[in-house]
Amino acid sequence: MMSDRGVLPRAEGKFRTNGAGRSSIVASMPPRPSSVPLRDEVDSLLREKLDFHSELFEAAQIQRKLSGPREFRHGSLQFASEVFAARFLSGDFTTFLKNGSKVLMAHGDIAGKGIAAGMWFTNLAGLLQRYGRPYSDPARIASEINRHLCCLRPVAPFATVFLAQINCHLGELSYCNAGHCPPILLRADGRADLLERGGPLLGAIEGAEFELGELNLEPGDTLVAYSDGVLECRNTSEEEFGLDRILAALRHADSSSAQATLMMLLATLQDFANGSSLCDDVSLTVIQR
Questions:
Q1: Rounded Cα gap, residues 83 and 160, in angstroms
Q2: What tens-digit pLDDT sequence spans the chain (289 residues)?
Q3: How far apart are the first and last CA of the chain?
Q4: Which end of the chain is flanked by fewer CB atoms within 10 Å, N or C?
Q5: What pLDDT is attached to residue 34?
Q6: Which of 185, 178, 171 is nearest to 211 (CA)?
Q7: Which pLDDT belongs to residue 261?
Q8: How far is it, in rounded angstroms, from Cα 218 to Cα 229?
Q9: What is the DSSP letter of 63?
Q10: Helix then strand then coil, % of the chain, to nearest 5
Q11: Which residues are within 8 A (CB) of 218 and not within 5 positions of it... i.e. 6 or more apart?
């Protein structure tokens, strides 16, 4: 005779089956909640995502408008610029402020990427409007912006910027490089110089001194400012684009216009990347006489 442990207990009480073959416990369970509320929640999240992307797109358009035109001519000089964000908004920026025969150009890079860097761009654009007076030289402008950013530490990010004040009729150019990648000045005869005179990046050293550089843009000369995202752009073999490739591409560029030179440089960079995604913001500014 089997022991009590070997005998299954009789189904009784709440475990008895009802007439439809279901156990009473199953019958007494609350009904499964409808999937309608879940669908509504998913739809709401999708709408929020679309609204978010729409607002980011609008913010990127505002940032581009604050940067000034992509292409224009003033006096004997042609200007062209482009900025590509690695993540929504760009920390790279380029701006042009016209005043009579002069143009103040700023090409810079705010530390970081994405929304935070893009928000600080509006602050820097305002500072350039404030301190970029007609007769303020680039070194003084850099000093004023540096003082402002240092007062906001540790909230404000570091920023690098190349500032140039240009007389578009005479080709006279004064500049200050505040920690930025040194722009290339390619002379009509093929000689190339790097514009390095200036000082440290902005927001890093309170009371930092900034030097002024001066030169003349002669007919046929081309100036190219770029961000570190151009230098550090990688291909599928993890090689960096680097300064030498910029120089080589520039020497073989169609120099009929600043816009043509810019498009050629961007095409060369794109061919080099060969489909690799951007790891940093990319920006280029071309000035040609």
A1: 15
A2: 444 444 444 444 444 444 444 555 555 656 555 566 788 778 788 888 777 667 667 666 666 777 778 899 999 999 999 998 877 777 889 999 988 899 999 999 998 777 777 778 888 888 988 888 767 899 999 999 999 999 988 888 899 999 999 999 999 999 999 999 999 999 999 999 999 999 999 999 999 999 999 999 999 999 999 999 999 999 988 899 999 999 999 988 877 899 999 999 999 999 998 887 777 889 999 999 9
A3: 109
A4: N
A5: 57
A6: 178
A7: 94
A8: 29
A9: H
A10: 35, 25, 40
A11: 171, 187, 188, 289
**How much is the pLDDT for 12?**
44
DSSP 8-state symbol, 185:
E
Q: How far is CA 238 from CA 59, 235, 241, in A?
A: 32, 5, 10
- Count of residues making up the chain: 289
Establish whether the linkage from the previous residue to 200 is cis, with ω within 30° of 0. Answer: no
Residue burial 16-32, b: 16+ Cβ < 10 Å; e: rest = eeeeeeeeeeeeeeeee
Domains of the chain: 67-288 (3.60.40.10)
Structure tokens at 264: 């050629």
- Whole-model pTM above 0.70? yes
Q: Who contacts 201 (Cβ-Cβ below 8 Å, separation ≥6)?
A: 158, 159, 160, 178, 179, 180
Task: Please say whether the beta carbons of 224 and 212 come within 8 A.
Answer: no
User: Angle, to 10 degrees, between the axis of helix 242-251 and the axis of helix 258-273?
Assistant: 140
Residue closest to 68 by CA, chosen among 109, 107, 21: 107
d(CA 237, CA 228): 19
Q: How many CA atoms lie within 13 A of 265 on its CB side?
A: 34
Helix (H/G/I), strand (E/B), else coil: 48? helix
Question: On the CB side of 128, how many CA atoms lie within 13 Å of its CA?
Answer: 28
